[in-house]
Design goal:
The complex is a heterodimer of chains A (227) and B (408). Chain A has 227 residues and is an alpha/beta fold. Chain A is built from seven helices and ten strands. Chain A has a six-stranded mixed beta sheet with strand order 6-7-8-3-9-10, with helices on both faces. Chain A has a four-stranded antiparallel beta sheet with strand order 2-1-4-5, covered by helices on one side. In chain A, helix 3 packs parallel to helix 5 and helix 4 crosses helix 5. The longest helix of chain A has 18 residues. By secondary structure, chain B is α+β, with helices and mostly antiparallel strands. Chain B has two domains: 190 residues, no CATH class; 181 residues, no CATH class. Chain B has 13 helices and twelve strands. In chain B, strands 1, 2, 3, 4, 5, 6, 7, 8, 9, 10, 11 and 12 form a twelve-stranded mixed beta sheet that branches. In chain B, a hairpin with a 2-residue loop joins strand 8 and strand 9. The radius of gyration of chain B is 32 Å and the shape is elongated. Chain B starts with a helix and ends with a helix. Classes of the chains: A alpha/beta (227), B alpha+beta (408).
């Protein structure tokens, strides 16, 4: 039996806008193995953001089951989901989403603050920054960093709690092609070194062709799963 | 996330937006400052008034004309005959001494100097009733009273103003309303009092005042001071006096047209007045605290909206509702606590200045900033921040991470 970090079965998400029901995700089933690099693609409105939100435990599915790292999470309440996100999911956003007033170090420490008592918080945060090549930028604030460096801080933050999966939503979308390339290299390298499952949501084929597998969504359904 | 971290983050957030934070807490600063200053001034006034009333003497009754609680169509004035009637050993066995007085502010001059002290027309018994003693000379005698002598006793404040000294004044001649009076004594200082300074006085014989200084109908008097044999007999003496005056004024049925007042009554009345004053001022101050609290709520709501993405991010990183709630409540309480602390300083300063002004203008008055007021203000301002922070913090805590992250 393969080691699936994610197993999704008949996952549905229905939004109600007034009387109209929008089937953003219409019965999606797939599995992702631990350590895999996957991209989720699809045109806008295809449900890829919805799928990312569900996989990242940011939202509740309307129906279906979602087993993350051996735990059924589709029935959990808001605070339990927050705990899952804290321990098992790392997020990298298109617009970095760093706290502007905090230093790189403080930004990376943030997930550990919500994790309860974490020993050596500061040390772990600087090690994470080191692993993304920012050992000399520890006390800089986001405004003092380039876009690529900010995204590295975000990656360090995403990985600092040793999550099971790393969700990257258009991680290179706000970067020039050179830093975008570097960020992709960094993500792939970290995946190799740490074995963290990497899920990239993108519409850029140059990104998706670097991943082992592509989940293509059309109208809330999986169009094809390219091996 | 523990409270220590929450406080540090709140401090960072508050200090990152200094002008806004300062303006936000201004309402609380003014509110708390007002509460502290008002309470201090109220307490100071109460202490000054009750302190000076207590200095009058504990076995003293005052009899005034009129009735403070009821409207009367006809009020008989109190007369010398009324005063003499109170000396009746059979009808008023508890009464010790009786001192009718006339009183009026008059101009007194000596050489080029002039002042406007309170002039009392008194009898010899006034000395014992009010516990006056003389630093020089003699008190007014019955003979002087019978002879309408042009003699005067001088209080130290008047002496200071007219002569610039307090001794060797017996034999000098001052003019009261232009008429010459020879000084026959200097009164020992009694210190400040609620009825103006008790030292800013001139005393002349009752009959002299009646005939030459203060025009009154018939033999009417302004106030009758009555000393009671024992402090325990105050109530009894008061009843005896009322009984005698009712008969004399023929008001045995219906409301009295006079009032018998003891020092305790004065203290109680003064406390009531200053108490009402304090509540009134405190109420106004409380309203400004309320307004300050609404200001905090307003800014916190703005802050929540501004930081929607940040809240979404924090939630994505694993912040629970409780964490966000604590973060924003800490921030609003910190803001108002800060405002409270600055407000306490401000209120203290105001009270201090009021005290200085009062002393400079001759009223010895000491505003008291009590520990209770400080604790009250601190607790209350923090509670205001907490209360008015609940709604914005709750709003932040209940944001859905997906929507918050998407917020532009």
């Amino acid at each position: 039996m393969t080691d699936n970090v994610i197993h999704v079965n008949e996952l549905r998400k229905i939004y109600k806008i007034g009387e109209i029901e929008v089937h953003a995700l219409d019965g999606v089933s797939f599995s992702i193995e631990r350590g895999e690099v996957i991209s989720i693609m699809g045109p806008s409105g295809s449900g890829k953001s919805t799928l990312m939100n569900l996989l990242g435990c940011l939202d509740h599915p309307t129906d279906g089951s979602y087993i993350l790292d051996g735990e059924e999470v589709s029935e959990l309440d808001d605070d339990q989901l927050a705990g899952i996100r804290n321990r098992k999911v790392g997020f990298v956003f298109q617009s970095f989403n760093l706290l502007p007033r905090a230093t790189a170090l403080a930004n990376v420490e943030l997930p550990m603050r919500y994790a309860g008592q974490v020993p050596d918080r500061r040390k772990r945060a600087s090690e994470a920054l080191e692993s993304v090549g920012l050992a000399d930028r520890v006390h800089h604030r986001p405004t003092e960093l380039s876009g690529g460096q900010q995204q590295r801080v975000a990656i360090a933050r995403a990985l600092v709690n040793n999550p099971s999966i790393l969700m990257a939503d258009e991680p290179t979308g706000n970067l020039d092609s050179k830093s975008g390339k570097e960020i992709m290299e960094l993500l792939l390298n970290l995946n190799k070194e740490m074995g963290t499952t990497l899920i990239i949501v993108t519409h850029d084929p140059r990104i998706s062709e670097q991943t082992q597998r592509v989940i293509r969504l059309v109208d809330g359904k999986i169009a094809e799963a390219v091996a | 996330m523990n409270l220590g971290q929450a406080i540090i983050e709140a401090l960072e957030s508050v200090s990152s937006n200094k002008l806004r934070s300062a303006l936000t807490i201004l309402g609380i600063v003014i509110g708390v400052g007002a509460v502290i200053a008002m309470l201090a001034v109220g307490n100071g006034a109460q202490e000054t008034i009750t302190g000076s009333i207590s200095g009058i003497g504990s076995n003293l009754l005052f009899v005034f004309r009129g009735n403070q609680t009821e409207e009367l169509s006809h009020v008989e004035p109190l007369t010398l005959q009324d005063a003499n009637a109170l000396l009746d050993q059979f009808q008023a066995p508890s009464v010790d001494k009786v001192a009718p007085i006339l009183t009026q502010g008059l101009q007194v001059t000596y050489g080029g100097e002039k002042t406007n002290p309170t002039v009392y027309g008194v009898t010899s018994s006034y000395k014992d009733v009010r516990n006056y003693s003389m630093s020089e000379g003699e008190f007014i005698t019955d003979e002087q009273n019978l002879g309408r002598a042009s003699v005067a006793l001088i209080g130290v404040d008047v002496a200071d103003k007219l002569f610039g000294r307090r001794d060797g004044l017996v034999g000098e001649t001052i003019r009261i309303e232009g008429q010459p009076f020879r000084i026959t004594g200097v009164l020992v200082s009694k210190g400040g009092g609620s009825f103006g300074s008790e030292d800013n006085t001139i005393m002349v014989p009752f009959s002299t005042a009646q005939a030459r200084l203060m025009r009154r109908n018939r033999d009417s008097v302004d106030t009758i001071f009555v000393s009671v044999l024992e402090p325990e007999l105050m109530k009894q003496a008061s009843d005896e006096i009322s009984q005698i005056l009712r008969e004399r004024h023929r008001t045995s049925i219906g409301a009295d047209d006079f009032t018998v007042f003891s020092q305790d009554d004065f203290v109680a009345t003064a406390k009531t007045i200053t108490g009402v004053l304090t509540i009134f001022l405190g109420g106004i101050a409380g309203i400004s605290l309320l307004v300050g609290g609404i200001g905090i709520m307003n800014i916190m709501l703005v802050s929540v909206t501004e930081r929607t993405r940040e809240i979404g991010l924090r939630k994505a990183l694993g912040a629970r509702k409780k964490d966000i709630l604590i973060q924003f409540l800490t921030e609003s309480s910190l803001l108002s606590l800060l405002g409270g602390i600055i407000g306490i300083g401000l209120g203290w300063l105001i009270a201090f200045i009021v005290g200085k002004i009062a002393i400079a203008s001759g009223t010895p008055f000491n505003p008291v900033v009590g520990v209770d007021a400080i604790i009250l203000a601190t607790v209350f301002s923090t509670a205001v921040g907490l209360f008015f922070g609940i709604y914005p913090a709750n709003r932040a805590a209940n944001l859905q991470p997906v929507e918050a992250l998407r917020y532009e």
